[in-house]
Amino acid sequence: MNAGTTSLAPAISMRSEWVQFARFLKRPTLPARAPLPKIRSLIAVLRLFVLDLIVMSVLLGIAGAVMSAGIDVPETALAGMEIGPAIIFAVIVIAPLVEETLFRGWLSGRPGHVLGILLAVPAGLLAAGIFTTVGGGTFANPWAGMAGAVIVGLIVALAFVFLLRRRDAMRWFKRFFPQFFWLSTLGFASVHLFNFEPDQMAMALPLVLPQFATGTMLGYLRVRYGLWSSILLHMLHNGAFISLVLLAGSAA
After folding, report:
1. Which residues partner with 6 through β-bridges?
2. Ranges in the chain, pLDDT < 70
3. Which of 12, 60, 125, 127 is the most exposed place for a label (fewest CB within 10 A)?
4. Are 150 and 98 spatial neighbours (Cβ–Cβ below 8 Å)?
5. Contact criterion met (CB below 8 Å) for 177 and 109
6. Contacts of 156 (CB under 8 A, 6+ apart)
7. Crossing angle of helices 209-225/14-26, nearest 10°?
């Protein structure tokens, strides 16, 4: 077995999955190449989703207690926004696909994944600039730029994944995997600060703790069971969140 790579036995229960997750956080280590999707992997996603709901319930309870004490909490971008089908689709489908690809697609340490993401980002930004500035005004809108960026970035990423698909994780990446894992998790939590007004970001730091906690679970699933599993948990998490927002809005 390659140095810095481990192969974990499949968890046989929810409790054992949570124990393996806790051990992974204590000492993040890059496992062997994630297997193709199987029913066992789907079960692992559901087990982590239960843990995610428990953690979110505790954090929401703390937030509720803070608000009950009269402390003002910064509002997110969704506050006061009319949530229609387009926003729901973006939150549940688009955001998990894009965020998991950017923040965890490269955590496998395989050359195709790392190079694909590194080059997909500038390629996507270049495409966004082109689509929003050319075409005689036909494409001169942010939605066209965003769509162009996603499509071009995805093509570039998939090209590198296909060309280097037989390459295993790089040795230097395995050595520094704990740092990469926590960097990915912190970056994922930090980017959600942009959901708040610029002058409220400092006060909003505790409010991205849910994203940090969920990010650790997403990272574990990504390297243990594959990128599809972290995308699925992300979709379930966002679906539960948007459902809670809609329920709170209807109750109000």
Report:
1. 31
2. 1-8, 36, 77-80, 125, 127-148, 249, 251-252
3. 12
4. yes
5. yes
6. 116, 119, 120, 123, 124
7. 100
Question: Any residues with CB less than 8 A from the CB of 21 and at least 6 apart, and which?
Answer: 48, 51, 217, 220
Digit-coded pLDDT (tens) for 170-222 = 999 999 999 999 999 999 999 998 888 877 777 778 889 999 999 999 999 99
Calculate Rg over the CA atoms of the chain: 19
> What is d(CA 194, CA 188) in angstroms, rounded to the nearest whole number?
11
